Amino acid sequence: MATITFDTHKYIKTLEGSGIWEVQAEAFSTAQKEAMSEVMGSSLATKDDIHRLELEMRKPEMQLVVMKWLLGAVISGILALIMKAFFV
Predict the structure, then answer these.
(1) Helix 22-41 vs helix 8-17: angle between axes, to the nearest 10 degrees?
(2) Which terminus of the chain has fewer CB atoms gathered within 10 Å of its CB, N or C?
(3) Dist. CA 53–CA 49, nearest whole Å
(4) For the whole model, what pTM was predicted?
């Protein structure tokens, strides 16, 4: 699973630079860090998950293509036998 790094010190300093008190900035930082850990702990899809899903979705499509070709070959064979029976 992907890991996201969160620089709490830089976040606190940025908040302090905009006029927020240090205690409040630390509280915001803690809340942000907890929220991010909850999101990352949930079942979010990764790139590998999406790639695996795309491959799974293509399987039936490929099977359908093979079935179409086989059906075409069977119908061609039947037509050839009919033509041979009536025209030869």
Answers:
(1) 140
(2) C
(3) 6
(4) 0.43
d(CA 32, CA 35): 5
**19 Ramachandran zone, left/alpha/beta (phi>0; psi -120 to 50):** left
- 38 and 51 in a single domain? The answer is no
Domain, as residue range, for 7: 1-44
Q: In this structure, are residues 4 and 35 in contact, taking their beta carbons and an 8 Å threshold? A: no
Q: Quickly count: other Cβ atoms within 10 Å of residue 36's Cβ.
A: 13
Encoded tokens for 12: 């606190």
For residues 39 and 74, membership in a common domain is answered with no
> Would you state the pLDDT for residue 84?
92
Residue 54 has pLDDT above 60, yes or no: yes
